[in-house]
Design brief:
The chain is of the alpha+beta class. The protein is about 45% helix and about 10% strand. It has helices spanning about 5-10, 10-40, 45, 55-60, 65-80, 80-90, 95-100, 110-115, 120-130, 145-150, 210-220, 230-250, 280-290, 335-345; strands at about 140-145, 165-170, 195-200, 200-210, 300, 300-305, 310-315, 330-335. It starts with a helix and ends in a 9-residue tail after the last helix.
């Protein structure tokens, strides 16, 4: 379809065509996976001058290494477990999910594990695997990054002051929670990563600036009276609790002791109406609790799952007489708040600056 033809499509037609194209791509992908499964069974890649199916996929079929890996994993999985092929065809499983699950599947457990993974994200499947095959907790490690890695890092303010930190959520029993400065030099700055180790354990890997490292050490020392071991995971957990409490109190007026005074705006009961754009604290608390800290926009395929960048949205716009009551205020992510504003007032065209 040409670009001109695409521009002539209505919004409804464009969505329908996109859904159809995605379904076509899924059918093509599954067809390729099934062909690879049979080709692998016959080892036909050998006659094509390739020593492995992976080489055949990357050098002959010109697939990327990632695409080849996921398709080969799926091909070998459906040969053993035909149920996976059915789930791939109906779109309830992805190739990434199959690749993650395959090492853990057996004839006895595959049905249960496959059903549990349906319509799950990669992170949710990783958590499923962590419950299935938990890994031991790791020791805390802090090491200084080399100058070459730090100079390209936006987190570092001085040469040679970047710090890499690996923190397990719980140290092994009897193991000191002291940080060790060790490890070989790194060629590049490691990217932030959170990896599930078990059902309730996570490995956090990130880089800190020199200031962040200093603050972490200061917090560790200040907590020595209540946390003699200086366990950094416990320090971070407490710091995050205080940060969340501070942010929710500032943005959503959460408190354990809400004001009952009617003389202050923050004491306005949820059922009352404010004539200004200001949102009383009682209204913000009630809306946050009602919407569960999640965007409340609902489309044809369900409710938005976004829990970040949330904003308070006037269902009936303030400019059209909408009041600041609980019934007229709802949580929206930034994207859906802007989207509903466009539906109501039209899209703003960018202003040309001369």
């Amino acid at each position: 379809m040409t670009a001109e033809a695409l521009h002539r499509l209505s919004d409804r037609e464009l969505i329908a065509v996109t859904v159809h194209a995605a379904a076509d791509e899924r059918r093509s992908t599954i067809a390729l996976v099934e062909l690879l499964a049979e080709l692998d069974a016959r080892r036909l890649y050998l006659g094509q001058g390739c020593s492995s199916l992976f080489t055949y996929c990357t050098e002959v079929l010109r697939l990327s290494e990632s695409a080849a890996y996921h398709r080969i994993e799926a091909a070998r999985a459906i040969r053993l477990f035909p149920l996976i092929g059915e789930r791939l065809r109906d779109g309830s499983m992805t190739l990434t999910t199959v690749a993650l699950l395959r090492p853990h599947l057996t004839l006895k457990n595959h049905g249960r594990l496959v059903e549990e993974a349906l319509h799950k994200s990669k992170r949710e499947v990783e958590q499923q695997i962590a419950r299935l095959a938990p890994k031991p907790d790791v020791s805390t490690l802090i090491r200084r990054l080399p100058d070459t890695a730090v100079t390209s890092s936006p987190l570092a303010t001085l040469r040679g002051t970047g710090v890499s930190i690996d923190i397990g959520t719980l140290v092994q029993p009897g193991e000191p929670a002291e940080a060790a400065v060790a490890g070989p030099p790194l060629n590049r700055r490691p990217q932030p990563k959170i990896e599930p180790l078990a059902e309730d354990r996570y490995l956090l890997r990130l880089s800190l600036s020199a200031t962040g490292h200093e603050n972490l050490r200061r917090a560790q020392n200040l907590m020595r009276h209540s946390l003699p071991s200086g366990d950094l995971s416990a320090v971070l957990e407490r710091a995050l609790e205080l940060l969340i409490e501070h942010l929710e109190r500032r943005k959503f007026a959460t408190t354990t002791r809400p004001s009952t005074s009617s003389s202050k705006p923050s004491g306005l009961s949820p059922g009352k109406v404010s004539a200004s754009r200001h949102l009383p604290a009682a209204v913000r608390r009630a809306v946050w609790k009602r919407d569960g800290g999640r965007c409340a926009f609902t489309g044809p395929h369900g409710r938005c799952t976004e829990t970040g960048r949330l904003e308070f949205h006037h269902v009936v716009p303030f400019a059209r007489g909408g009041c600041a009551s609980v019934n007229n205020i709802a949580l929206r992510c930034r994207a859906h708040n802007a989207y509903e504003g466009e539906l109501c007032f039209g899209r703003r065209e960018p202003t040309n600056v001369r």
